[in-house]
Amino acid sequence: MRFISIFLSVFIFTACSQKEEKIPVDLTRKGFSYYPAGELAPVTSGQGRKGDNYVYAPGIRFPIESAPAYLNSQVYGVGGYLGPKGSLCSETNYAYPWHDNYCEKRSKYNMPLCSMGTGHQGVDIRTATCEKKKYYAVAVENGVITSIGTYTVQLRGISGRTYRYLHLDSATLKVKRGQNLRRGQRIGLVSNNMGSTPTSIHLHFDMKQTIKIGNSSKTVFVPPYTSLVEAYKRLLQGHP
Amino acid sequence: MRTSFLRTLFFMLLANSILNAGGILDIKWPELNQAQQKAVASYPKVLSEGIKEVRLPVYLSSSYVDDQNMIVVSNKDFYSISFLLEGATLLFEGDRTYQEVVSVKNSEFQKIVQKLKPVEFSKSEEVMIAQFNRHGANYSISVECEKPQTDKRCTEEAFIRGLYGNIILVGGKR
Questions:
Q1: How would you class B172 by CB atoms within 10 Å of its CB: exposed for 0-12, middle for 13-18, buried for 19 or more?
Q2: Cβ of A10 under 8 Å from any chain B Cβ?
Q3: For chain A, which residues make up each domain, given as ranges?
Q4: Is there a contact between B147 and A204 if contact means CB atoms under 8 Å apart?
Q5: What is the CATH number of domain A24-236?
Q6: How close, in Å, is residue A84 to chain B by CA atoms?
Q7: β-strand B88-95 against B78-85: which pairing, if any?
């Protein structure tokens, strides 16, 4: 019986994912649509983790306080340093559907869960409009701020998972080291801060957790995309 | 179609093999010799008080153990000790928890485990990181620079290798 159930699950899941690969999914009535996990754009931007729809961080809150937000590539999007010419504020960048960018090409960043062995360790998210210091990044779960660097803020959730928020405006941060946060509490304003060399206006968000296998364990950056899709749907539906 | 099916099946099996059961790793405690025990007693209060509840071995670079300006965030399962240097932030972390269990038969994670090194140096968003596993717990050292493109502490590995090279055990509660 269990075998039949597993077989049917696989069959149905496969049928669904075949459909998903052709058109972005719109499960809300607010225009939100997204490509499946691992479908990077353009295809030359790297090999995503296609088919991994596992929700590594179930129930998290979306890391930007308000919708809309747009998850897509900073590097390969319009105005990105490897993208089509144009303004970083192009409307194309501020539109659905979402595109995963976990595992996007980054030659220096070790990534055991990316097929190339290196890649983007999280995802980049644009806020509603191309304006810095206007939209708040918030805690995705209850936790404590463990570190604040020049351009990173690190939250350790009660789950033990570590979340990094990059490029927030450091002068207006709402948190300090050691501060306990509630889920949804403001951390800081999304900006373009990367120390002395500013980046584009966006939030880089990543999630690190420890995976145990036999007597060994390894702390890795896990795919955030599916967890964020679920979180964003909840945000759009009014119960973030 | 066939490739897609196999890919989906692979990740279905992966998801199935992840039991989503977090917990505490087994710590194999090292023995402290007399000299180490004496040294532990002399550390600044901010350190000894900050890590008094931590139930895993705590490591810190010997160059920084006496720095009174360290900031310690901890509970029984983890610690995070940071230092604000001139133009950079230095962070030492240790954690005894895990969030997922993967079956030993999972081929992807088998490969990851086979490739495990005693220490791994890498970059993460221009932050220089050393990651290692000792006594069953997971540790990292990170250096984040105000000028990540030009500061040698973030462009070359020498600084972080030096930090890793002189880490010492500074405490932890069994």
A1: buried
A2: yes
A3: 24-236
A4: no
A5: 2.70.70.10
A6: 23
A7: antiparallel
The CA-based diameter of chain A, rounded to the nearest angstrom, is 61
pLDDT in tens, B147-173: 999 999 999 999 999 999 999 999 998
Q: Is the pLDDT of residue A208 over 80?
A: yes
pLDDT exceeding 90 applies to what percent of chain B? Answer: 69
Tell me the pTM: 0.89
* Cross-chain residue pair A210–B97, CB shorter than 8 Å: yes
Q: Chain B within 8 Å of A56 (Cβ-Cβ)?
A: yes
